[in-house]
Amino acid sequence: MEGESKEHLVDVTRNINGETAHHGLTVITACLFIAGEMAGSGVLALPRAVENSGWFGLVMIFVCCLISGYCGVLLGQCWIILQERWEEYRSDTRDPYTSIGVRAMGKVGKYSVSFANNVQLFGVGVVFLLLAAENIQSLAENIGHTEISFCYWNLLIAGFLTPFTWLGTPKDFWPIAMGAMGATAIACVILTANLIVDHNQVASVTVRHDPVGFTSFFMAFGTILFAFGGLSVFPTIQHDMKKPKEFWKSVTIGYSIVLCMYIPVSAVAYFFLGHKLDDNILRSVTPGPMLYIVEILLTLHLMMGLVLVLNPFLQELEEIFRVPNKFGWKRCLLRTCVMACVLFVTESIPHFGAILSLVGGSTVTFTTFICPPFFYLRLCAMKGDWREKFVPLHVKVMCWEIILIGLIGGIASTYSAILHLANTFVPPCYVNITAADAA
C-alpha cells in the first residue's frame, strides 16, 4: 500500500512490458491539449453557423460534441489495442493514427488516413493563421489606428511562429496547450459579457434571423463538424501520456470544457445578434476594451493552436523523408518549408469561413466520425494470438449510425462549401490585395 502511494505521488506508470515510465502527459495536461487545440476557431465561427442553421444549430453543437467525444474514446481504445497486440507501438511512434489505419485496413487504411489527416491538419493551420491575421488587423486598426492588410499580417505571424514549430512532440510544449486553453476560456467569458452589454444598449431593436436553406444549413453543419474535429492529433497526445489507458478521462474532461465555451457564446450571439453575425463573430461586436482583450486572447490561442495542430503532420512528414527524431537542421528546414506552404495557401484563398466548412465537411468528417468507429469494429473483430474483444450489439449499432451520419453530412457539407467558394470567389492576396482585404 505504501509503495502504491509513493508511485502515485511521483505520477509514474508501467507500460505493457512492466517497465516504469517517469515522463509524459498526465490526464489533466492531456485534456488541456484537447481543449487547447480544439476550441479557438469554433468560438469565432459557431455563432454564424447557428444563425445559418437556426436554433437547431445549438442542438447540433451538443449532439456533435457527444458523438465526437465518443469517437475520441473509440480511437483511444484502438491505440490501446495496438499497444497490447504489437510491441513496436509501445515505443516512440511518430504517426499513431496512421498506424491504427494500417492494422485495421492495411494499405488502404494507411494511405487514406495519412492523406485525410495531413490535409485536415494543414487546413486547420491555414484557418488558424487567417483568423489570427484578421484579429491582429482589427486590433491594429482600432487601437493603433494603423491600416495594414491581413495579407501582410499573415507574413509576420507565419515568420514569428515558424521557430516554435521546430519543437519535438506535444510533451515538449505542454505549456503552450495550457496557455491556449486558458486564453480561450477567459476570452469566452468576456465575449459573452460583451454581447450582453451590446444587446442591453439596443434592447428595443428586433433581432431578425436569416432563412435557413440547404446550402446554408450544411455549410453550418460543416463548421460544427470542424469545431469538434481535433481527433487527428488525439493518438499523438495519447501516445505521449504516462497512462494511455486513462485517455478517455482526458477526452471527457476536455470535451466538457470545450462545450462550456461553445454553447454560451453561440446561444447569446444567435439570440442577440441574429442576421448581423459575421463569419468571425468578433467583426459583429462593438469595438471597445472588452473586444480588444478578447481579440488578444483568441489570437494567442490561434497562434499557439497552430503550433499544436501542425505537429502530428510534421512528424509524419519527417517519417516519410527520414528526418532524424531529434532537433537538427533537417527538422528546421522541413518544418519551415511546411509553414511556407501554409502561408502560401492563406495568401491564395483569403476566405476562412469557406475553407473551414470545406475541411470540416470532408477530411474532419472522415477522420473524426467515420474512421474511429469503423477501425474499432475492425480491430475488435480480428482473430490472432491475443485476447478477443467482444463488442455488444448496441455498440455496433451506434458505431454504424455514426458512420452513416458522417457520410451523409460530410458529403452534403463538402458540396455546399465548394458551391459557396465558387459563388464567392476572392482574388488571392498576391493578385489583388485590396479585393482580398475587403472579402
UniProtKB/TrEMBL annotation:
Question: What PANTHER family would the database entry show?
Answer: OS05G0424000 PROTEIN-RELATED
Q: Name one Pfam family in it.
A: Aa_trans
* Chief site of localization: membrane
Q: In which compartments does the protein localize?
A: Membrane
Q: Per the UniProt entry, what species is this protein from, by scientific name?
A: Lingula anatina (Brachiopod)
List keywords of the entry alphabetically.
Membrane, Transmembrane, Transmembrane helix, Transport
UniProt GO cellular component terms: membrane
Membrane-crossing ranges are 24-46, 58-82, 113-132, 152-169, 176-197, 217-235, 247-272, 292-311, 332-349, 355-377, 398-418
- Residue limits of the Amino acid transporter transmembrane domain? 24-416
Q: Which PROSITE patterns match?
A: PROKAR_LIPOPROTEIN
UniProt-recorded name of the protein: Amino acid transporter AVT1C-like isoform X2
Identify the Gene3D superfamilies for this entry.
Amino acid/polyamine transporter I
